[in-house]
Amino acid sequence: MKAWLRLAALLTLAVSLSATPASADELSAQAPVAMVRFVGNTVADLMWYPYTGAGFQHYLVKVSGRADVPVAGQTTDFYRVEGLKVGGTYGFQVCQVLSSGTECGSVQSATMGQVQGYIRRNMTWPSGTYTLVGSVHLNEGADLTVESGCLVKSSDSSVVRYLSGRADSSDQGGYIAVKGPATFENIEIASGTLGLSMTLATMKGGGVSAGRGAGVVILEGNTFDNASITVTDPVILDADENNLTGATMTVRAEVAAQISIEGGLFAKPAGVPLQALRVESNHTQLDVSITDNDFLGSGLSIYGTSADSVAIGENRFTGIAEPVAVSLSLQQCTGIQLSRNTMTGTLDADYGVQIYGMGLPGACPVALRDNIISLPDYFSQAVQIATKAPVELTGNTLLSSQDIRVLPGSNVAAHGNCLWDDIPNLRPIGVSLDSDDVTSVVDAEGNWWGDASGPRYEGDHPDGNGADISAQPGRVAYRNWLTVDNCRVDLPRVQTVTLDLPASPPPADGSTTVPITALVRDQKGIPMGGAAVAFSVQPTVGGFSQAIATTGADGRATVQYTVPR
Predict the structure, then answer these.
(1) Which residues pair with 218 in a beta bridge?
(2) pTM for the whole thing?
(3) Which fold has domain 494-562?
């Protein structure tokens, strides 16, 4: 936060195009100087210090090439010049007309289209391209509406420019509303005290900072490509049906925050380093709900020191290499629940779910209910637990070489779960503890271990033909096991992906487009509808009409590829 404030201070200096203001005693003796506080495409906002002496009649705004405009009101200090031309350079001057004569300040110039500055009155950006050469801030409750068809970009592709709902901590700021489809390239949109809404926007680089004071931030149907979302202040974040690809998405709460993420797609294209949606807090209360999202090759991490509640439910994790990890040093909260999620991993997936760092016995309870976790690697762990807080696993189907891995000091109750997987030449481990662990408490009665004879537990129940229990005798309660299979193995898994490419090479002219179709089939060879497919080329050449496409009922997803020169 300190770094952000320092940056805001520097930006304040950078976009103030006027000379150093005079003292109050000197103002009445000086002509007003026009400060160009905002430069847009066709709009320039002028500000000046009002005349405080006697004999005032009106102000006069002069713009090169245009008729002078009289402005009434001695306390007036603002005027918006409209109808200017993009690329045109204009001179601006403010005069005060007194009974004793007319006094004019110096001429200030600006070039339209070099967008930067402070917006003090409501403004709408109609369809068009807006190139930011500096930051844009809202002041004094002004609202900014970005309409459909806008392209807002940084003048320098290596520099992220800020579009902020607030200039500094003392300012009220304003409301930013993006009514897409709209595109932002290397732009960081920062909400202010009045909040932010953004619909159907595409963020390429930069991202969204949900903060700068209290407010509600609504993100719906947006695409984040190498962009992120960050919570930095008290805020209600409601993010529905957003897509993220190409970068780690971080939701960081530096103070109390309510975070809801629903119906989104988080995808890791081929060649992109491992990543995860990361929700974290810093000594503050979190209220987190993450439901009905698709994670394609991307995991999920909840990290922090305190929480009211965390609910992760009905999400689909496909081909993940990063785990779903919850690490909260909690003393008390209403609970952490992971329910009705499905997870399939790659050969790089070491873990499905990790629960760790939960503090004292009797702290925030953790419940895993009705999840399906399938990991193909011979050394993978479906659930790893390292916490003194009580952890309950009920009705889960865990298909991996190690289903429940318990680290020392943990308190685990597991009932009604399927703890088995048909792994060639390997008997899975249903529950495992360290060989010298005498502190963990594990109640694993009433589970299905893969065979009606129950688990194999050396030194306690060695004749069982089901999954192994790896622990010192007497450390795991396992009686009253289920004698009928309760595994939910109907989970569709991606088995093959084939590409349909043009029969002959297309011309490499930089303008020819060709269709590329991916056909996705599950483990039964049946086309998979509703699967998200990430398209990319390594090294990056040409371009796709969209980075992510969803298969139809026939299992096919098609995008257009522009052939490079």
Answers:
(1) 197, 238
(2) 0.71
(3) Immunoglobulin-like (2.60.40)
